[in-house]
Design a protein that fits this description.
2 copies of one chain form a homodimer.
Chain A (H helix, E strand, L loop, with lengths): L24 E13 L3 E8 L2 E8 L5 H8 L6 E10 L7 E12 L17 H6 L1 H4 L3 H23 L3 E2 L5 E2 L11 E4 L2 E5 L4 H8 L5 E9 L12 E10 L3 H22 L1 H6 L13 E3 H10 L12 H10 L3 E5 L12 E2 L2 E5 L1 E6 L2 E8 L4 H10 L8 H5 L8 E7 H9 L20
Parallel strand pairs in A: 3-5, 6-10, 12-13
Antiparallel strand pairs in A: 1-2, 1-4, 2-3, 4-5, 7-9, 8-9, 10-11, 11-18, 13-16, 14-15, 16-17, 17-18
Chain lengths: ~450, ~450
């Protein structure tokens, strides 16, 4: 078996090998992207994380043993090549490697379950079944480079704004919003659920004196949706801030969005180019449209919508046709928002809730919260929820709870806005939906 | 109701108010830590995230209405105070605030379920039941400031080492290691499980060309343990690196640990002082003790242990008595490590697995992995596991899988080493164990 790494270590990634490095010895490692055997000369395109380098093996310049080894190589096998850099006008990056040593680290079976050259179209389900191969395509890995950078920049921004990261439990005893969209778990002899949102926990943290908290973690929703915008497990970016209101929350959300987009634009140029997506840094402040105004706009666009209703998909699409980028919808009816949303003190039929939209896609929901215990208890009851199920949560409002506001952003939907992708499955390594639980 | 924030906003935190700010108008917000009403003068200690400031209200200097409002305040209520800074030799931080305006934002019920002054001892269960009050104590919040900083520095370190953050699913169709320590979920009409580790996913990512990945996310183990070192939901810091072996993995782990400790020591001085913990930056390289040598040390210490056995708690304690800080245990018997651990090629009875210990506490397990498909299949079968349950995972080893190595660090245990705490429950905001599912 020739699959041992031994003392071979990569010295460079493909994109780091430059013509200036002429005659330098390098060790490259990666997958065999393409092979051409012209008899007296073999060309191997070696692909690694960020690029491709040509290994050029003329039979006259290398040992017969090495030439034979190269001849036997198969597509998508993993190799390590030690060799010298040579300038080449024709090869990618203007360089080629003349090999001196080769290690076959892992041989690929053929045929592949999925094409890696990007020339053959594959359905999303076929791609997800063999996700590890799908991700070898640079236009797929680009999505996750952008998502990773986005998450990193969100965290750095929130830390710079003095937020503390918290980890709240995903195993919970009762529902956040009393909904039926929960996955039940057997927790030893008891029934428990998977957290559909850290909402109640981040609110309890507001009574702890932490003031500014964030969490980036999975949430789980047992929704039976089968759309391009829903999954049953996603990453939620959750923020809660004490001693502030919904207007402050919108400001920090807006800043976070612009900062993340700017960071992605500045740091993921290659990935954006690979995706052929022209990422625009949005202007601030984002337009703020009151709910009533939105209903008028939707109706004017020919989509029937009554005041007091939630947005239908058709209404979202109508707004998406009118609005080009990010915008807030504010002043939502209290009746269609969760119990913990603060009613507008001057007109309690309206609420201090907002949604952040990108075209026709809801990116975030947020609000100022009810912080008065008795009002919260009444609102729970009004929604038909059992206060006993919320006793630990309600207790946090009895011993000094500051006013607070916050929001949650769907990391995958946010990634969709930065990549131009239309199917949320594209933005998750191993998506979970109604039908898919593997790989 | 007087609970509205209106246009009041905090201008400073307690610790930011300095004697140099004499006569400056400030707005502080927080909880009433203590009250003293001496008749003609009222002292209010206002506590916020990082400190305490004295509000001094002499009846002669403030309006009668404000004096009456102050008189009525109760401990742990939430207030906002606008006032002027005055120097004071006796008050904390050398300053006091002479109030001009007061807002009662949230009134606390009395008596409190938990003392906040730190003078009354409470059992951990009582504290966890009212965690939101427990966290108001600066010696409790200090733990989570350290944990948050640790996580932040781990991420920054890994990003600086060119690692990409990944999010792998927590809803899985089969067990990672075939164990019985899984929480079952009802996933629509199917059975699924909660991920006990991202092991199989981070390995599949090695076949994708991402090369260096990390994930910081919850893991779930249905262990019936009732110890000071186990919980059923914890945060795991997972790293996997392609084209490297276990020695490389140990190096990166060691660097990550030292970097995180250094960052915590440099940025969390107040928190460490509050905890009265003298955090030491460990010297590198950490001692590396082979398994066989460890067995001898344990036996010499009077604790019986046979070669080939896993460490008992008594064995861990014996090692903890001998070793003062961090150390690796290497060359573990292949037979007691999971199927995906690479056997030592020169002596397959031993493996390329390591544990990182801190005194008597296991902080991390890691290894070079098997990357050869047929060897992996055989090892699965040897462990009595059904290869059909692992078909999607095994497929990733058939089409070019580079050699790789990695580890997982328990974020809570790592936090224990940075705080001197002995009960893992202290390091989790809302812990989950055999008995506890709330709050």
């Amino acid at each position: 078996m020739t699959d041992s790494l031994e003392n071979f270590r990569r010295t460079h990634y493909s994109k780091e090998v430059k013509p200036e490095m002429k005659d330098q010895e390098v060790v490259l490692m990666g997958w065999i992207h393409e092979m051409r055997d012209l008899g007296g000369i073999i060309f191997v395109l070696l692909r690694d994380r960020d690029g491709v380098t040509q290994v050029t093996a003329p039979s006259k310049k290398i040992s017969p043993e090495l030439f034979e080894e190269l001849k036997k190589l198969k597509k998508e096998s993993v190799i390590a090549v030690k060799g010298r850099v040579q300038e080449s006008g024709k090869a990618p990056g203007g360089v080629e490697i003349i090999p001196a040593e080769l290690k076959l680290l892992s041989e690929s079976k053929l045929p592949l379950p999925l094409d890696t050259t990007g020339n053959v179209h594959a359905e999303i389900d076929t791609r997800l079944d063999s996700r590890f191969i799908d991700l070898r395509k640079h236009n797929v890995s680009a999505i996750f480079k952008i998502k990773s950078r986005m998450l990193h920049s969100v965290r750095n921004f929130l830390e710079s704004e003095d937020y503390t990261e918290v980890n709240t439990p995903k195993l919970v005893a009762s529902a956040t919003e009393g909904g039926t969209e929960l996955f039940p778990i057997t927790y030893f002899e008891r029934e428990a659920f998977l957290g559909q949102s850290p909402q109640l926990y981040k609110q309890m943290m507001m009574a702890s004196g932490f003031d500014k908290v964030y969490e980036i973690a999975p949430i789980f929703r047992a929704e039976e949706h089968d759309t391009l915008r829903h999954l049953n497990e996603v990453i939620s970016i959750d923020v809660e801030t004490a001693f502030t209101d919904h207007l402050d929350a919108m400001d920090i959300l807006e800043k976070m969005v612009v900062n993340a987009i700017t960071e992605v634009k500045n740091n993921c140029q290659d990935a954006l180019e690979t995706l052929e997506f022209n990422l625009q840094i949005p202007e601030t402040p984002f337009p703020r449209i009151e709910y009533d105004e939105m209903v008028e706009m939707v109706n004017t666009a020919g989509v029937p919508m009554k005041h007091g209703e939630d947005m239908s998909r058709a209404a979202e699409k109508a707004m998406g046709d009118i609005m080009d980028g990010y915008y807030f919808i504010t002043e939502w009816p209290t009746a269609i928002k969760p119990f913990y949303v603060m009613p507008n003190p001057e007109n309690p039929v309206k609420s201090c809730a907002f949604d952040l939209m990108y075209k026709d896609l809801e990116i975030s929901s947020g609000a100022m919260r009810v912080h008065n215990h008795d009002m919260l208890l009444n609102k729970l009851k009004e929604k038909g929820l059992n206060p006993d199920s919320f006793s630990r949560y309600l207790a946090a409002f009895e011993y000094g709870m500051p006013p607070h506001a916050g929001w949650g952003v769907g990391a995958e939907r946010f990634t969709m806005t930065m990549t131009g992708l239309k199917n949320i499955r594209e933005t998750v390594l191993f998506p979970r939906d109604r039908r898919r639980l593997t790989p």
